[in-house]
Amino acid sequence: MALPAPSEDEAPVDPSAIELRYRYHRARRYARMQARQERRLARYRFYIVMTVLLALATAFVLGSWHEIQRLFGL
C-alpha cells in the first residue's frame, strides 16, 4: 500500500534546522550589537585623539608665540 502524500499544511520539519536558524539569528543579532558598540567606541577614540591633538597644537602655538616675543622683544 502506498503512503499518502503529505499535504501542503504539513511540511516536513527537521529539528536540527530549527536550532541552526536560531543560532544563525542569534549570531546576527550579536554581530549587530558588537558593530554598534565598536562604532560608539570608535567615536570616543576619535574625540579623545582630536582633543589631544588640539591641546598639542595649542601648546605649540603658545610656546612659539612666547619665543617670538622673547626673541623680537614684542
Question: What does this entry look like structurally?
Answer:
By secondary structure, the chain is mostly helical. Helix content is 78%, strand content 0%. The chain is rod-shaped, with a radius of gyration of 32 Å. The N and C termini lie far apart (111 Å).
How are the secondary structure elements laid out?
Layout: H1 15-72
Q: Largest sheet, described in full?
A: none
Distance between the termini: 111 Å
**Count the helices. How many?**
1
CA-atom Rg in angstroms: 32 Å
What is the overall shape?
rod-shaped
| Helical residue percent band | over 70%
Overall structural class, as computed from helix and strand content, comes to mainly alpha
Tell me the number of strands: 0
Low-confidence stretches: none
Average predicted confidence as pLDDT: 89
What fraction of residues sit in β-strands? under 5%
Helix-strand string: H
Describe this protein with a few key phrases:
0% strand; single chain; 74 residues; rod-shaped; mainly alpha; 78% helix
Summary of the model, kept short:
With 74 residues, this protein is mainly alpha-helical. The mean pLDDT is 89. It has one helix spanning 15-72.
